[in-house]
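quick one: flavin-adenine dinucleotide bound model?
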Amino acid sequence: MSTTDDLERSGPDFGRGIAVNRLQDGGMLLGRVGEDDVLLARVGSEFFAIGPYCTHYHGALADGLIVGKTIRCPLHHACFNLQTGDPLRAPALDPIACWRVERQGDTVYVREKLSPAGPSSRKPPKSPPSVVIVGGGGAGLAAADMLRREGYDGPVTMISADDSPPCDRPNLSKEYLSGEAPEDWIPLRAPEFYSENRIDLLLRSRVTAIDVAGRRVLVERGSSHEFGALLIATGADPIRLSVPGADDPRVHCLRSFTDSRAIVAKATEAKRVVVVGASFIGLEVAASLRIRGIGVDIVAPEKRPLERTLGPEVGQFIRDIHEAHGVVFHLGETVARIDGRSVTLSAGGVLDADFVVAGIGVRPAVALAEQAGLALDRGIAVNEYLETSVPGIFAAGDVARWLDRRTGERRRVEHWVVAERQGQAAARNMLGRQEPFDTVPFFWSQHYDTTIRYVGHAESWDAVAVDGSLADRNCSVIFKRGDRRLAVATISRDRDSLRSEIAMESA
Ligand SMILES: Cc1cc2nc3c(=O)[nH]c(=O)nc-3n(C[C@H](O)[C@H](O)[C@H](O)COP(=O)(O)OP(=O)(O)OC[C@H]3O[C@@H](n4cnc5c(N)ncnc54)[C@H](O)[C@@H]3O)c2cc1C
Ligand code: FES
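yep, here:
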């Protein structure tokens, strides 16, 4: 028998039944079945019982949104099938648990937990003799995972220049760098995932050429791999500083797990660091190093951080947050020279630094595509199915510029969720699913305890409206051209972010 305290803490026991009218259409109620927390959701006259936490970062699905017979996570917009628990959209790659629900008159009972659905039993329309994926990042891993989920049975080879298996790259500038996340959070999949799913993962292996006519890729040190279908998911390379002294081992970039480990190793002894660049990576690195108690100077040419992407209001707000945490900005300046511990700025000032981190942007890694003669457009040009100018060769993630059917514009973005979803879409299209990629772009960025979520895409706009208050950290910032909403950035308004995404999907 539960006490009132128990009931308040863990909600009603759905195994004992709950009155139908406790839940309105589209409503959700937290409770439990035995020892398990369960979220009961209603869609029309149907009820669904699911695990209440997202399998990506444990987001509380009760704070998300029900859309048809799916539920979206408030944190990074993963989407799950309410009937099967299937992760329909990255960044979640694993299903949530589901329970059988039984209705008797006006009472709903949650019964036993259901077995996960497993790989699709629908035979894919096409089955290439083999698939090669170049790149072991978010897009590459999501593609390999989706090939197996879709029931593809042929050989899958993933070739990665990285030292480590596909990792949670966004975390490398956040909790891992600040010391709040242990090493074992970082791999996207456990080592046995690759053998169990017959994914041949080749690490420290750089593909040097694509032989389009011979349908094979060539890897440095001489091996080659034939492909029936190929995915190029080579991501983007960080731009290096090109000032005197920039080749000093004290100067770091941040893209890979190895890069982040190298910064962590130096951070354990450091007192002062110079971060070059006031965009997302630079700012997140600054926040993580401040959390470690290290003094941080940020040097960047712009007037306000993030102004180009998020406008002057949000830029100033972000600057204020970082300054409140002790970061010192040197804006309107660049680095002229690095001599050991001394970083000389363009206006002549000199900063002391145990090490330097450069976050001055990336370039899409198009060398392979260029060599193979694929069509380029400031990235690899792909159609709405993410196929390049050569049939059977696809591209996804930071390297791909795709045709956005919703706006008719070509886009290339550097967002984690987009990269993973493109990997998934490319995998399905390799198997003949013919599904256009039509995700509304989404990214998030974290600065201490403030997270910005952003849906849509606005390279330029003619009006910015702030609904709510930046100072109170509770607002939606709307970027418009004419009457059209191009993008919405939110702080502490996660449902609004999901609503904006849904509105843009149907615009
Ligand atoms: C530190 C950091 C933090 C970030 N934080 C966020 C965030 O908070 N939110 C967000 O939305 N986005 C974030 N991003 C961006 C996001 O991580 C990228 O958009 C995403 O990783 C792109 O995935 P991808 O698979 O296209 O490329 P990547 O993940 O970069 O993977 C590319 C892969 O290709 C391999 N490769 C390249 N060339 C070759 C070759 N010739 N042969 C073999 N392998 C090759 C590389 O070794 C790598 O394995 C962050 C990025 C970084 C670096
Ligand atoms: S926690 Fe759910 S999408 Fe990240």
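Residues 1-9 have pLDDT under 50 and may be disordered.
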